[in-house]
Amino acid sequence: MAFSFTPSFHKEIDLDGLDQKHYLVTALETARHLQWNIIYTGKNGFIAMTGGGFFSQMQEFRIIINQTSILLSSKNADGRLGDWLKLNEENVDTFIEAFSKVKTSITDEQLEEKLAELAPILESAEDDLLNAPLPSTKQNLLSFIGFFIPQKGYFITPLIIYINLAIFIIMVICGVSFFEPSSKDLLIWGADYGPLTLNHEWWRLISSTFLHNGIFHLAMNMYALIYIGILLEPVLGKLKFAVAYFLSGLVASLASVSYHGYTVSVGASGAIFGMYGVFLSLLTTNVIDKSVRKQLLVSIALFVGFNLLSGTSSGIDNAAHIGGLISGFVIGYLYYPSLTQPDKKGTELVATMLIAFFTLGGCLIAYRMIPNTVGIYEAKMKDFAIKESMALEVMSMPKDTTKEILLSEFKDRGLYYWNENIRLLNAVDSLPLPDVYKERDATLKRYCELRIQSYNLYYKQIEGKQSVSQNTIDSLNKEIASIIDGLNQRSK
Known about the structure:
It is a multi-pass membrane protein. The chain is α+β, with helices and mostly antiparallel strands. Helices cover about 65% and strands about 10% of the residues. It is built from 18 helices and five strands. The protein has helices at about 20-35, 85-105, 110-120, 135-145, 155-175, 185-190, 195, 205, 215-235, 240-260, 270-280, 290-310, 320-340, 345-370, 375-390, 405-430, 435-465, 470-490; strands at about 10-15, 35-40, 45-50, 55-65, 70-75. It has a five-stranded antiparallel sheet. A hairpin with a 4-residue loop joins strand 3 (about 45-50) and strand 4. The longest helix has 29 residues, at about 435-465. It starts with 7 loop residues before the first strand and ends with a helix.
């Protein structure tokens, strides 16, 4: 048995007392009984498409009838590189069991009738494609390598893989962790992060789609990309595939920064989900061949649903997945008219460019409409710092300043600006900020309250109408210094 990179299962069995023709008739009836889609019938066997298991994967089932034995084989037919549920082995076992039942139930008259129907095929002079030899190990290796080689009908997908791999390798060479890059490193390389992305660094919406949080994240995304690329790129062509990938990734990043603005987000999964969305929409049209449409629709829908469900766990940006999926679904329907008229190249190009133009325009509007909460907060904090500086100027008044001026400065400048900063902090409390900002604001509010207490004591001390304990002032100043040290430590 030749080794294959495409998951498969083979089994050789006896003719079980039947001649080749009668076995072929019974086997065809068995496949129909199992509701498999027979796509080719030859003199020595047939090929059928099956679907089953939790993920409803598609498999190609072949039966080749020799003079003394039968070779049964099943292999993945939908581009998947794994068969962890052993669905191919299950297909072979299911066929053998069903064949035994059909064999005992079919009559001699029915056999002869079915043989008559097959006569044109059995008597044909054409070669049976099932007689072709099984691929060798070298051929299978070349087939696997082919997933990464640009070729007709599969050109853009390998290029996208190269870009992602190249960026990851360069990052690792520059010192970024191979398994788990830090958020700081990802931000340096262009991760999507609301406070930066919405602060005129719009390019992060694109750069983040080519970054990955470690080798396992990269491998899973590239596997999913290969799978959808094999199925979809031959249908769309290079231009449509590339445009759909780029636009879906952009919309996914916008969705991420809109719903998870304080999360460092990276990965190609949003764009990849977009391509699954494109394929799902096309599977509801006549663009995809009817013989495989239903199986693929169920398979892709369950695959997407399973991954979205998995995305509810922490650390996975489902907003990007959903944003990419929906945008891809819409793009697929927008592509439909040009896909039904493939001969009109000029029309196809214009339609694709119009879709890109209006999608980019919509993204620009959405980008400007997303509130930059952290940007607003930081602007308020700059105002806070200005008021703080003005309030602290009172403490550096010249020694020869008159009592009246000092009292006026403490009251009209110092106490006024500390109270203004408390009002400012109360106002920013209404902003939808992460807890870390809320905690910092609470500390700043406590800081301002202590300053007000301290300034009130200084005021009374200068006024001289009542005694003020210096120990109380020193205690307040000590607590203020402690808060300042704590804030400085957090900012490092």
